[in-house]
Design goal:
This protein is an alpha+beta fold. It is 34% helix and 35% strand.
Length: 170
């Protein structure tokens, strides 16, 4: 397994990774639109991420297959550029093998080097205790609990946690 920054040439594999995550788990919501984007659109999106030092996308690969990814995208608006939204997912066959920890380590090291963004945000379902423990390990704290933050057809409305980490904000 190799952990590295995403490359434009990963576009097709990244789309397939998102499709697999969407099918395997309801703990990590994946936007349907993103799984339907063309490879060319994913190439443009990845190129855009790579051009912005505050935006990050790291992937864990096993041969040519992407088995995990950690992505941080910053807000483009001038007053919000200090905010980055984090997402992370690992395909189910590789859960509980420290891949999420390795991806988070790479992503957080890159954020420290770039010195931006300064506010990292993420939303996680309250029932996803493994992910919450991972985020806490990296210094994230719960800022809010959103009642009825996610709707699961079989379970109904579920709470989600808004977690945050502030970096060099006095």
């Amino acid at each position: 397994m190799i952990i590295r920054r995403i490359a434009v040439s990963d576009a097709a594999h990244y789309r397939e990774f998102l499709r697999r995550i969407q099918q395997e788990t309801n703990l990590v919501p994946v936007a349907v639109e993103e799984t339907e984007w063309t490879v060319a659109l994913w190439q443009l999106t990845i190129a855009s991420i790579l051009e912005q030092p505050q935006d990050q996308c790291w992937v864990a690969t096993n041969d040519q297959q992407i088995i995990g990814a950690a992505r941080l995208v910053s807000a483009p608006e001038p007053g919000l550029r200090h905010i980055g939204e984090l997402s992370i997912a690992v395909v189910q066959d590789y859960w509980h093998q420290s891949i999420g920890t390795q991806l988070m380590t790479k992503l957080m090291d890159a954020v420290q080097q770039a010195a931006m963004p300064r506010r990292l945000e993420l939303t996680v379902q309250a029932r996803n205790t493994h992910a919450i423990a991972l985020y806490r390990q990296f210094g994230f704290t719960v800022e809010a609990e959103l009642t009825a933050g996610y709707q699961e057809p079989q379970l109904g409305w579920l709470p989600v946690l808004q977690m945050v980490q502030l970096i060099n904000i006095g």
